[in-house]
Structures are given as structure tokens and as C-alpha cells.
Design a protein that fits this description.
The protein is about 45% helix and about 20% strand. By secondary structure, the chain is α/β, with parallel strands linked by helices. The protein has a single domain, classed as Rossmann fold. It is globular. The protein binds S-adenosylmethionine.
Length: about 250
């Protein structure tokens, strides 16, 4: 039997402090260290939601708002982005105002594990590179389900580990040695980019992740591998008849 991954406990206040600390350099580091692929991955999330035309969208752990801003392509009525790190949201807000999108996108501080919204509020919930940071993953996933309407969709983008030779070995070398080194130099934060590889290698992925979504009540779950499995998209739906989450 395959052993389940052991997750490193993530303390919310440390995570918040870390992202507040690197907020001003986050966008540059993100695009530089991922060689720009992160934007392609976010576009895949938009493509998945396109046929569904969600009108009210929640972007959890929105950070500097890159996914929230891209969600505009779906022509929704409202996009709400939440995050625990207010400095990340300051950057998000600057970008939103610059693009004159502040009538459609609102961002504010809130915790993904205790969302300040009524049951069944949104047509879609998205998260990009956020779930790995949740202190309590199951609680965060359950909250996403709770605020989704019947037939609502959750689309989660997260780093994962490639499994095939030689991509796995090359990736591990980049991820464990080069990325923490570059990250440390540019972010000036010792912890941030050594935390990233550790949190990815120990985080549940593939079937293990979709199982967590199903245990929370999501149906029709799906796992899509991106770029040799370096990232993954997880999709889950809320059933038509009843919303299991709202009744919990
Ligand atoms: C790697 S960043 C991703 C930001 C953005 N979604 C993107 O695609 O670039 C992770 C974000 O998750 C946020 N975060 C971590 N734990 C959270 C929680 N419990 N509730 C809300 N946001 C959280 C962090 O503050 C940080 O901004």
C-alpha cells in the first residue's frame, strides 16, 4: 500500500508574515522563477471555466490578484478575491485600479478556512498556488464547497511533482537547489523559497488530492497534469440536488 504524504504543518501567522514580507517582489519572482509558465497555467483555469460562464466568482488566496484579473475574460458580474496577507492585496488593488477593474473586482482580507460568505453564494471558486499554504486543507476545501451554489465549480491550480525520468530529477535539482538560491537572493527572505520545495514535495497530489475533495462532498472530480506534472489542476463540482456542504 502506498504511504500517504505527510504534510508539513503550516502556521497561519508565519505564512501571512512571509507573504507580507515578499509582497513587493512576489510578481517579479513568480514570473522569473517559473520562466513565465505560471501565466499559461492560470490561463488554463480560465479556459476550463469558459464553457460554464460563472457570474459570481470567488478567488481564494488571491495574493497579488493575477488570477482574479484574468477571470475578467469570463465576463462575470462580480469577482471577489480574498487573502490573509494584506500587503499582497495592496499590490492586487494597485493593479486592479490601474486596469480600471475596481467596479467588478473587490479584494479584501479573509481566511480561506473561515470564509465570510453565506452558503451557496458563488458560481465558481478558484485558487492558484494557495491550497498548499492552508493550515487546515480539509477545512479550506470544505469552505469552498459551502460557498458554492448547486452545480458550482471549484478549480484549483497547484504545484505538483513530476513522476517521470528525467523531468523528475531535473525538476528536483532546480526546485531544491537553484530556486531556493535565486529566491533567497531576490526576495531577501531566507524562509520563503526553501519553504516552497518542501511544501510541494510533501503536499497531497493527484488522486490523493481529489479524494480529499470527494470526502468534502465534491463530485465529478478531475485531475489535469500541466507541463510534465510540474503543476496540476483539480476540478470538482457541487451536486445539482443538494449541497452537502451547506448542510454540514
Ligand atoms: C503563492 S501565493 C498565490 C497568490 C495568487 N493566487 C497567485 O496565483 O499568484 C499564496 C497566497 O495564499 C495566501 N494564503 C495562505 N493561507 C491563506 C489562508 N488561510 N486564507 C487566505 N489566503 C491564504 C497567502 O497570503 C498568499 O498570498
Amino acid at each position: 500500500m502506498k504511504a500517504e504524504s505527510q504534510r508539513i504543518p503550516t502556521e497561519k501567522k508565519n505564512i501571512r508574515a512571509m507573504f507580507n514580507n515578499i509582497a513587493k517582489r512576489y510578481d517579479f519572482l513568480n514570473h522569473f522563477l517559473s520562466l513565465g509558465i505560471d501565466n499559461y497555467w492560470r490561463r488554463r483555469v480560465i479556459k476550463i471555466l469558459k464553457g460554464y460562464q460563472p457570474k459570481e466568482i470567488l478567488d481564494v488566496a488571491t495574493g497579488t490578484g493575477d488570477l482574479a484579473i484574468k477571470l475578467i475574460k469570463l465576463k462575470p458580474n462580480k469577482i471577489i478575491g480574498i487573502d490573509i496577507a494584506e500587503e499582497m492585496l495592496v499590490i492586487a488593488n494597485e493593479k486592479i485600479i490601474k486596469k480600471k477593474l475596481n467596479n467588478i473586482i473587490d479584494v479584501f482580507t479573509a481566511d480561506s478556512e473561515n470564509l465570510p460568505f453565506n452558503n451557496m453564494t458563488f458560481d465558481a471558486v478558484t485558487v492558484a498556488f494557495g491550497v498548499r499554504n492552508f493550515e487546515n486543507l480539509e477545512k479550506g476545501i470544505n469552505e469552498m464547497g459551502r460557498v458554492l451554489k448547486s452545480e458550482g465549480k471549484a478549480v484549483i491550480l497547484e504545484f505538483s511533482m513530476p513522476t517521470k525520468f528525467p523531468i523528475k530529477q531535473l525538476y528536483l535539482f532546480y526546485f531544491k537547489f537553484l530556486l531556493p538560491l535565486f529566491g533567497r537572493i531576490v526576495s531577501k527572505n531566507k524562509f520563503a523559497y526553501s519553504y516552497l520545495p518542501n511544501s510541494v514535495t510533501t503536499f497531497p497530489q493527484g488522486k490523493e488530492f481529489t479524494k480529499i475533495m470527494e470526502q468534502s462532498g465534491f463530485i465529478n472530480t478531475k485531475h489535469i497534469k500541466l507541463t510534465f506534472g510540474i503543476a496540476s489542476i483539480y476540478i470538482g463540482e457541487i451536486s445539482k440536488k443538494n449541497n452537502n456542504f451547506a448542510n454540514k
